[in-house]
Specification:
Layout: E1 8-11, H1 21-37, E2 40-43, H2 57-68, H3 91-103, E3 107-110, H4 114-126, H5 142-150, E4 156-159, E5 166-171, E6 175-180, E7 188-190, H6 198-208, E8 213-217, H7 224-234, E9 240-244, E10 247-248, H8 264-269, H9 274-282, H10 297-303, E11 314-315, H11 318-331, H12 334-347, H13 357-371, H14 380-385, H15 407-423, H16 429-443, H17 447-459, H18 467-474, H19 476-491
Parallel strand pairs: 1-2, 8-9, 10-11
Antiparallel strand pairs: 3-4, 4-7, 5-6
Length: 495
């Protein structure tokens, strides 16, 4: 257990891919602990595996955190007293500590070639042994080592793992965990190009950055004894280790894209609200009780404690995420929801990013309150209202004719609708609805049939936002033009 008193946690992604739901959940748990305890949340970029870096992934990591509101106190673009916070800028630090282990006899230079290592592993597999380094260079004589150095052979630095005994550490969730040294090998600390491996760099950085708690996925439990041995070799205190369970799909297999789990910024593209995704992720391995599911950010910070983390894998349920997102959409003020919808209309090409905003925004503002209850994702607004942003709508004329009516009766009803709209002094949804209901009653038409024909005429859909709110958003002239076109479709001999 660490003697540190201030809570300092870190999210340390590698820019080798775009951030997915699993590692962003880890970031969230670290962030919540820091905010709950009044501590510090550090973003550290572990980019020592240069060959696997994916262009754009570092920016995506930071953009994803910002979108979710997971602000970092120290790290890239934020600065801090423990930087640099990008490992590729800290190479001399790792080399210094590797040299310290060499001088203490707790590490050694290994000169084995890749060909020799491949042959060794092939022989071990043939004997049905787990492949691991055979420690050949650990026991070189001084004369042998001097000869190899004079030959100028490349070398790596390996940790001298104890060959006997056990390493034991305490995981916050699981208690005491022990690993026999016989199952561990002499892992590489520093590669031949002078770059560190994850094992060395993460331990050195966690110590130097005074990390108090290491919260990470339980796939790292097998690496923990190596880290613990390094802490002991340096004489450093261990941080609190918290290995959180994996996230599984509903079929209890490892979470993947086929379960709906995608890069975190794709959730934004798919129309999820950041507050909904934060709430959803918080419940993937943490719970306040057995029934509470909805938490705003302030309550999450107030309630989050490590002792409420679970030990069993969490189940990713996309239906639950959709339900939760719909709840958060309904909680927004209509003006706020409309503002969040604008970018999706732009992305769909329904409104121009410049120039067309002034005419499109009033339409979006007007229709948003009427579609709010129907939405699970922000992208649902596009399918519900795309007809508002085009001059020509396409549909089969047969859709215009309600069940129980024929084309002639439908055309007659639509001509009545034309007259009502032309004569209306008030084009508000409430006024139009009262006017049309009175007309339906006076003519003896069923409102469902009458309104259904008008709905298809003005939207091209049988399911759309409330009819009279739609007509209000379209405006008098566009509504008249569409209903006139529908009458033409029903009466034209060429159709």
């Amino acid at each position: 257990m660490t003697a540190k008193t201030e809570v300092r946690v870190r999210y340390a992604p590698s820019p080798t891919g775009f951030p997915h739901i699993g590692n962003i959940r880890t970031a969230l748990f670290n962030w919540l602990l820091a905010r709950h305890e009044g501590g510090r949340f550090i973003l550290r970029i572990e980019d020592t595996d240069q060959a696997r870096i994916v262009p754009g992934s570092l920016q995506a990591i930071m953009d994803g955190l910002r979108w979710l509101g997971l602000d970092w106190d120290e790290g890239p673009e934020a600065g801090g007293s423990f930087g640099p916070y990008i490992q590729s800028e800290r190479l001399s630090i790792y080399q210094q500590y590797a040299e310290q282990l060499l001088e203490a006899g707790q590490a050694y230079r290994c000169y084995c070639t890749s060909e020799r290592l491949d042959e060794m592993r092939a022989e071990q597999r043939a004997r049905k042994e787990p492949p691991r380094y055979d420690r050949r260079c650990r026991y070189l004589s001084a004369t042998e080592r001097q000869a190899l150095e004079r030959a100028g052979l490349p070398w790596v630095v390996r940790f001298a793992t104890p060959e006997e005994g056990t390493t034991t550490f305490v995981d916050y969730l699981r208690g005491e965990i022990a690993f026999e040294h016989a199952v561990l090998d002499d892992h590489v600390l520093l590669k031949s190009d002078g770059w560190p491996t994850y094992q060395l760099a993460s331990v050195v950085d966690d110590h130097l950055m005074e990390i108090s708690h290491v919260i990470r996925g339980d796939e790292w439990i097998s690496s923990a004894p190596r880290h613990v041995l390094l802490y002991k070799a340096f004489g450093w205190d261990l941080p609190v280790l918290v290995h959180i369970p994996l996230i599984l799909g509903k079929d209890h297999s490892k979470l993947s894209k086929r379960h709906g789990a995608v890069d975190v910024l794709q959730y934004r593209e798919q129309g999820y609200l950041p507050e909904a995704l934060v709430n959803f992720m918080a419940l993937l391995g943490w719970a306040l009780d057995e029934k509470t599911e909805l938490f705003d950010r302030e309550r999450l910070i107030r309630e989050f404690t490590l002792d409420r983390l679970g030990k069993n894998p969490a189940i990713f349920d996309n239906d639950k995420l959709d339900w939760m997102n719909g709840h958060y959409i309904r909680q927004l003020a209509p003006a706020e929801l409309a503002a969040r919808l604008y970018p999706y209309y732009e992305q769909a090409g329904l409104v121009a990013k410049a120039g067309g905003e002034s005419s499109a925004r009033p339409i979006i503002d007007a229709i948003t309150p009427y579609i709010q209850e129907r939405m699970k994702r922000l992208t649902d607004a596009i399918e519900l209202t795309d007809f508002l942003f085009t001059d020509v709508i396409q549909y089969q004329p047969a859709l215009l004719v309600p069940k129980g009516w024929d084309a002639v009766q439908t055309a007659t009803a639509l001509q009545v609708a034309l007259a009502e709209i032309e004569d209306a002094d008030d084009m508000s949804a409430a006024s139009l609805e009262a006017r049309f209901r009175a007309k339906a009653e006076a003519t003896g038409w069923k409102a469902g049939q009458f309104f259904g024909a008008i709905r298809v005429a003005v939207t091209g859909k049988t399911v759309a936002p409330p009819l009279f709110a739609t007509i209000e958003a379209l405006g008098r002239q566009r509504a008249l033009a569409r209903i006139n076109h529908a009458v033409w479709l029903l009466t034209s001999p060429s159709v």
